[in-house]
Amino acid sequence: MNLVTAPITGSELIENGAKPFNALVEFYRAFNTRDLKLMSANWANSDEASMSNPLGGVRRGWESIHEVYAKIFTGSAEVYVEFYDYTIHQTGIMFCAVGRERGYFRMHGKQVDLAIRTSRFYRMDCGKWHQVHHHGSIDAPALLAEYQSAVLG
């Protein structure tokens, strides 16, 4: 198993070919630049997509997941995350990336640092990786409550 400690922020150059790394860079680029169109291109736009994270609870189907990102991207809180300390597990037409996110949210001059355990599952479709599942957890209850309150209102 190859543990990668260098973070993915979304600002990295996309490598040649359909590599898992590229799909992860695309996701973090979409998230950190609040780009809903790019986020939509990263996810499987189907009812098979699912997400379980601190802001959206359990969401099933792209339409429901899209609502969570739209709320984050149009809200008054600035949220930034990067993926690090991760491993990629690939078999055939699927891969899973398991690691950590660190970052922050800022609102009204206040910044709170984030620490999230994260896994992302992708499936190859039409020559491109599409995210089919995301799970994120915040271990600290007080941080979770503050993050949810600030971002979701």
Report on the architecture of this protein.
The mean pLDDT is 92. Strands 2-1-6-5-4-3 form a six-stranded mixed beta sheet. β5 and β6 form a beta hairpin. Helices cover 29% and strands 41% of the residues. With 153 residues, the protein is an alpha+beta fold. It is globular.
Task: Reconstruct the topology from this structure.
Layout: H1 20-32, H2 36-42, E1 50-53, E2 57-60, H3 62-74, E3 78-91, E4 94-107, E5 110-125, E6 128-137, H4 141-152
Parallel strand pairs: 1-6
Antiparallel strand pairs: 1-2, 3-4, 4-5, 5-6
Helix pairs in contact: 1-2
Q: What is the typical, i.e. mean, pLDDT? A: 92
Biggest sheet strand order reads: 2-1-6-5-4-3
How many helices?
Answer: 4
- Any guess at the CATH architecture? Roll
Instruction: State the end-to-end CA separation.
Output: 40 Å
What global shape is seen? globular
Q: Report the uncertain regions.
A: none
What's the quick description here?
With 153 residues, the protein is an alpha+beta fold. The chain is 29% helix and 41% strand.
